[in-house]
Amino acid sequence: MIYVPDTSYACYVVQNDTTLRAYKTKPYNPGYGNTINIDYRDYYYTGNYLYQDGTQQFGNYSQIPVCLDNSVLTNNFYYRNDFDRILIIFFIIVFFVFFTLKKFIRVFFHGFREC
User: Fold this and answer.
1) In contact, 39 and 53? CB cutoff 8 Å
2) Contacts with 53 (C-beta within 8 Å, 6 or more apart), sequence order
3) Mean pLDDT over all residues of the chain?
4) Which of 40, 61, 73, 111 has the most crowded Cβ, counting Cβ within 10 A?
């Protein structure tokens, strides 16, 4: 499965080993002598899913990209490429918050015993 943050685009294409391109409308050949502009969004899945928007022009001699099958796409965050790093950061934060609160509560209640 391939994680995509937004599954509302019409066509998804793997550009290279770091980029997934999502087209707003499915690219097509507009016919002899005509050109069309199609908006797209590039997701950098090795860069925490940062994205960049752009427009690509298709004409008579353009190579039309082959869209990925929707059955291999998901927006379930468990399939994120960086999910393991997110979990590690989450547990480190929880660890420090837990021990900070534990120390604060210990000092707070220890101060009441002396009064």
Assistant:
1) yes
2) 39, 40, 41, 42
3) 89
4) 40
Query: How far is residue 75's CA from residue 58's CA, in Å, rounded to a whole number?
Result: 28
Res 25: pLDDT: 96
Closest CA to 1 of 84, 85, 71, 87: 71
- Tell me: pLDDT of 20 over 90: yes
Report the candidate in 60, 71, 58 with the shortest Cα–Cα distance to residue 27.
58
Residue among 35, 33, 28 nearest 11 (CA) = 28
Pairing of strands 19-23, 11-14: antiparallel
**Which residues sit opposite 3 in a β-bridge?**
74
**Structure tokens that stand for 86 in this block:** 């997110």
Number of other residues whose CB lies within 10 A of the CB of residue 114: 5
Give mean pLDDT, residues 68-96: 90
User: Does an H or E element contain 107, and which?
Assistant: helix 83-114
